[in-house]
Structure of Homoserine kinase:
Amino acid sequence: MISVRAPATSANLGSGFDVFGVALDRPADVVRVERADETTIDVTGAGAQYIPEDPGKNTAGVVARELDAPAHIHIDKGVRPSSGLGSSAASAAAATVALADLYDRDLTDEALVRVAAEGEAAVSGDAHADNVAPAILGGFTIVREDGVECVDADLALAVCLPDIVVSTRDARGVVPESAAMADLVDTVGSAATLTLGMCRGDPEQVGRGVEEHLVTPARAALVDGYDAACDAARAAGATGVTVSGSGPGVLAVCRRADRKQVAAALVDGFEDAGVDATAYPTEVGDGATFV
Ligand SMILES: Nc1ncnc2c1ncn2[C@@H]1O[C@H](COP(=O)(O)OP(=O)(O)O)[C@@H](O)[C@H]1O
Ligand SMILES: N[C@@H](CCOP(=O)(O)O)C(=O)O
């Protein structure tokens, strides 16, 4: 029997839609696999009642099919589904690493990421790899058609989960189909600044680099209280705030000393707008690990 823990992740980071992602220090899914003649799945933990146990509809089951690695798969969910924290990706990533090991498949990091992304495609409609890459590799990741880059970044964060449900599939439907050149120039500038900041461990640069005016405003419109939460977080010291993944989660970049007050301010901002929320301080963390 093999057990693997894979963390929650925050994708996009504003300026890197479908490209950037970070592994979060917590929470995480734990996936346990045992060889079987055919794949079966059971799920416990956060939001388990909303997660299909049909292997064709569960990201971990799709991964088992892609790897031709039938197994009994137990998923203990730490990452709440439809939160914008890569819940479906955490299971896909952990299942990929666990099943590759169980069946002695010698896959490169990049191949592991591609397999896990097929699991994501089954639920979001697109094989976007910006959650599964950091869930497997850890740190800050950059995903492109031709490969995956990973930086072992040191960065403090605060994450807030408003009591709203937004599915990734629905949130992909509001992304604009085209963009003006001025907006593209602005986004490239932010993405470059963010990447430098990740390499330097500089929260000011990363905070400036999450600013983006193409995808984020469309996503933010699905999250009641988003503007109030951002204003409160910035007033408490956040260097940048954006939608986490497809939302409704919100990610704030901050200096280490400010993490707790920024998390509290995000909750206060949502509550002032009449939306219940929870938040916690965290940081960029590791990828999938055997447990
Ligand atoms: N193993 C899994 N873990 C979480 N969600 C899953 C899993 N397999 C399938 N799903 C489905 O994926 C959807 C959640 O994924 P998504 O909307 O991308 O949320 P998140 O942003 O948390 O990843 C839900 O409809 C859920 O039922
Ligand atoms: N790039 C994707 C990321 C979705 O992240 P999730 O955590 O909401 O699943 C997108 O923005 O659609």
